[in-house]
Amino acid sequence: MERRLGLVENKSLPEPILLGESDTLKIILTTNEDKKASRPHQAFLLLREPKSNLDTSFPFSVRDSGKGKVELSHKDLPAQFLSGPKTLSASLVIASFGESKPYRNHAFDLKIDFDPSSPPLSVDKPLRYGKLPEIHHIFKSDPKSPPKIITIVFAAAVIAALPSLFIVVCSPDFSATEAGLYGKFKGEDSQV
Is 43 exposed, middle or buried (0-12, 13-18, 19+ CB in 10 A)? Predict the structure, then answer.
């Protein structure tokens, strides 16, 4: 069911607006400054529960022409507002930088309504920051070295190969040019 109501500046609606489980509240407004449409830096609908002073805000999507819109349904409301039938206070908040005058005024009351046949909403306990139980870490064991005999055998093989490599390189018969290595060091193809 669609119902249109007009909001007047600095005056709230006399009757509360009913928001059922399948209803959507759609508020459209145009912001003006000095009788000229302008886009504010902030524009939102503020819902507050009077008993607990819990509030939440819903920003308007505002275009450069100053026309703004916000839509609201049960799924958009915090779980604390949906714990049972209640009436919320709805205010419009509009503000900009500079010398423009901010606006905050009670616009209407919003009555949250539920279908009596639907099950009540269960609210999870909110996450609280504080002391948590101690965490016991299990670390990997230190890396193990290979057996010493294998390490000694491979070290001896490398040490034994070094003198033979030194003898080959230092022999008068060895030439880097003839081995085809000289050109590769300079980045050129070797010529034999």
Answer: buried
**Cα→Cα distances 58→42, 47, 92, 159, Å:** 11, 8, 10, 77
Write out pLDDT tens, residues 114-138. Answer: 776 776 666 677 778 888 889 888 8
Residues listed for the chain: 192
Give the predicted TM-score (pTM) of the model: 0.59
Residues 48/107, Cβ–Cβ less than 8 Å:
no
Rounded Cα distance, 110 and 45, in Å:
12
For residue 57, name the pLDDT band (cuts at 50, 70, 90).
very high
Q: Alpha-carbon distance 57 to 41, whole Å?
A: 15
**pLDDT digits 0-9 by tens, 6-25:** 777 778 888 888 888 888 88
Cα–Cα distance measured from residue 176 to residue 183, given in angstroms and rounded to the nearest whole number: 9
CB 104 within 8 A of CB 9: no
Q: Would the CA dihedral through 63, 67, 70, 71 be positive or negative?
A: negative
Q: No. of H helices and E strands in the chain?
A: 2, 10
**Burial level of 68, CB count in 10 A (0-12/13-18/19+)?**
buried
Residue 51's identity, in one-letter code, is K
